[in-house]
Inverse folding.
């Protein structure tokens, strides 16, 4: 996001519209925020979120790394594809609060569902 510290990356997030399935929301939000078409949306888990009395629901989806990003709503400042090796290196350095040294990216804190999703993806072969 535009207000985050430099090099801090997370996963995309959005809000479900009335009458919309979670899976449809994932497809719509990613298209709206970075112009990427995704498929194979798969539920991963959930986390209570107290502000504003919400529930964070996590998903995995498949996108084409050859498709260019388009930043449509001004909310997202930068997006990128990262390899598992890059993510694992960032995880070894700690979360964004620890500074992360000179790595290409910093990751969200360990209390967020975003971090859990990132960690589970990085642990895959």
């Amino acid at each position: 996001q535009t207000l985050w510290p430099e090099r801090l990356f997370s996963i995309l997030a959005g809000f479900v519209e009335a009458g919309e399935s979670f899976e449809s929301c994932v497809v719509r939000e990613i298209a709206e925020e970075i112009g990427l078409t995704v498929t194979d949306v798969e539920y991963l888990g959930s986390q209570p979120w107290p502000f504003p009395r919400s529930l964070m629901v996590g998903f995995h989806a498949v996108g084409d790394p050859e498709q260019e990003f388009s930043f449509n709503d001004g909310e997202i400042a930068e997006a990128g594809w990262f390899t598992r090796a890059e993510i694992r290196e960032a995880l070894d350095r700690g979360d964004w609060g620890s500074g992360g040294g000179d790595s290409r990216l910093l990751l969200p804190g360990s209390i967020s569902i975003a971090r859990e999703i990132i960690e589970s993806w990085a642990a895959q072969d």
